[in-house]
Amino acid sequence: MLDTESKIVNFEYAPSIEAIDIVRIEPKNKLFIGGKFVEPTSKKYFASINPATGEPLAQIADANAKDVDLAVKAARKAYNTVWSKMSGKERGRYLFRIARMIQERARELAVLETLDNGKPIKESRDIDIPLVAAHFFYYAGWADKLEYAVPGRAIQPLGVVGQIIPWNFPLLMAAWKIAPALACGNTVVIKPAETTSLSCLLLAQILQEAGLPDGVVNVVTGAGETGAAIVSHPDINKIAFTGSTDVGRLIQKSIAHTDKRLTLELGGKSAHIVYEDAAIEQAVEGVINGIYFNQGHVCCAGSRLLLEESISDLFVGKLKSRMEKLRVGNPLDKNTDIGAINSATEFGKIKKLIDSGIEEGGEFFEPSIELPKKGFFQKPCFFNKVSSAFSLSRVEVFGPVLTISTFRTTQEAIMKANDTQYGLAAGVWSEKGSKIHKTAAALKAGVVWANTYNKFDPSSPFGGFNESGFGREGGRHGLFPYLSIK
Ligand code: NAI
Ligand code: MG
Fold it and tell me: CATH number for the 28-265+465-485 domain, one of 3.90.550.10, 3.40.605.10, 3.30.110.30, 3.60.9.10?
């Protein structure tokens, strides 16, 4: 057996901090309605903080139902007078222009995202922002080819769509929502999460500079009440929501008596299966990436590790020594692997869930690494040898917390993986193609990654089963929720 502990050298990296002077943050950030930045009618603002320091970054406008109504009116006017009348080719041109401008301002967007969200700069720089641009490019390409997406059918845009997004991938979720909506000829009222509004507001600035007609995209900031005002607005034709299962349920109930369309992308408790014939070192990296990527603030995080019994001790040993080398700290440091938990609320929730797991008797491990004194930082950790009944095997933690159990046969692995009320994603590691195909086909999950994890591409659809929601985002499938198909 390989002695991994002695093989990994613990390199010390000198700090390499990304400069923040490329970003200009307005002290007060207004709403974006009808192509202009406007004061909220209530004149109320709330603070957005930098979770890595706990210090306030900026004030954000608190939109009420009146502001939401103004935004919907602007979107309706833009829909009736410009956007629904424009050719797909013209709409595509705007989307291409937006995509290119995002690329040009990528560093600025990445730094702002990291400041407001707490995610490591290497992720916002290398993953989030490139995917944001890719999404706009991808749907720009569809705008004049919609008739080929649904051959032989008559299609129309829906009208005004209301979009409510979370804080874990603020700008990426905005792109996932806005790009297909616009490509299909709809206009948008979007609400970013209250802890991460800044990148969406910078995107609004980019849309303004791109010359996007006034009112085609409107950004209203605020918390749950602002979101509820969008959901209940009578002149909205469709709601697209990404966030917690609880709020998703609430939204579905509240519009059940209307003809509003709905797509929900909710939580997950995704299984990550490693067979004994897998490439172990790669699988260890994959598992780390699956759960500790973005502080575990990932709806499709591989939060339940299922190991074939014969390799479980070896695998857990390697996992432990690799975790000792993870760098947790300043998200602006280019070497940082794990950044800050997004808010005090989430931080408190994660701590409480970990405590409850320890109390319940899970075999707990966390590395001995040191955390910064300020800000919301959480060590990556896991609970080993737990059963499916263990509470953290069932509850979504939405933090860097993994549970580990074992299996002996493919059938047992599949049964355990599917033993959840969710069904967003799963991962399978094996050198045998047939085993991967057999397993993947039997997993009840929207996405199954094989010998990799957390890989995204705008051309491949994403979405869940059961309590993970319904509807698909990305790919050709991502167009359907934004079209009326006759
Ligand atoms: P949340 O579901 O409350 O927030 C998501 C978005 O919905 C935010 O923009 C929020 O302002 C808005 N919202 C809240 N209440 C609303 C309402 N009644 N009507 C309309 N919009 C409303 O999620 P939260 O509180 O930020 O996080 C709680 C938990 O949810 C997390 O710990 C995690 O387990 C899960 N979550 C899952 C996400 C995913 O990607 N699937 C993303 C964020 C959270
Ligand atoms: Mg909430």
Answer: 3.40.605.10
